[in-house]
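[job 4471] stage=fold_predict status=RUNNING
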Amino acid sequence: QVQLVESGGGLVQAGDSLRLSCAVSGRTLSSTTMGWFRQAPGKEREFVAAISGGSTGYADPVVGRFTISRDNAKNTVYLQMSSLKPDDTAVYYCAAKPRPGAEFSFWGQGTQVTVSS
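[job 4471] inference complete, writing structure tokens
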């Protein structure tokens, strides 16, 4: 069974940096498309970033500020967030696809990121 456990959230000030981690078990990370999503209060969950093989993709609001990466040896995915803004405040979720081309169907419990102005 696939399990995703996020960590690294917290309260920071605008302009600060933060790194989120997602520990993956039950699946080989190197062969899995992984993603980060976020959900702000009163809003729908939205895509943030994804990594598949050697390719990465980002939502427009985070381009140039966020970086997704993974450590296959540690079976962990990271989201490095820089130049944080109050609009980045949300619960951040790690997600995995069961196979290439499928929807993200494995989800973590989420970690709260709060950016104060």
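[job 4471] summary: The mean pLDDT is 96.
[job 4471] exit 0
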